[in-house]
Amino acid sequence: MDTGVTPVWIWDSAPLRQALARADMAAVLTILRGAVGMSQMDFGELLGWSQSVVTKVERRKRDTLHDIREILRVADPLGMPRQALLPLIAGRPGAPLMDVLILPLPTTL
Hints:
Blueprint: H1 14-21, H2 25-36, H3 40-47, H4 51-58, H5 68-78, H6 86-90
Helix pairs in contact: 1-2, 3-4
């Protein structure tokens, strides 16, 4: 199956960043599927889901994407860079990389 190429612009697009900041995974899935131009059947096949599961998630009738492992199972086949998930983590669509708390490593153990 030709999975197409996920356009690079989608990762920093306002609609995707806003949906991620709201933790609206139904919208995220719909935006990503639209960006790659796939049918629900093809998108489901890419993710290892049935077309029915894609439909239910997009219509908010199934909350499948509730933990990071499930989110990464969607992100990885699409080539989504981890930085693109920052709005989800920070809860703000404009969250730049510098806003993420990075704890320094201890100098002694």
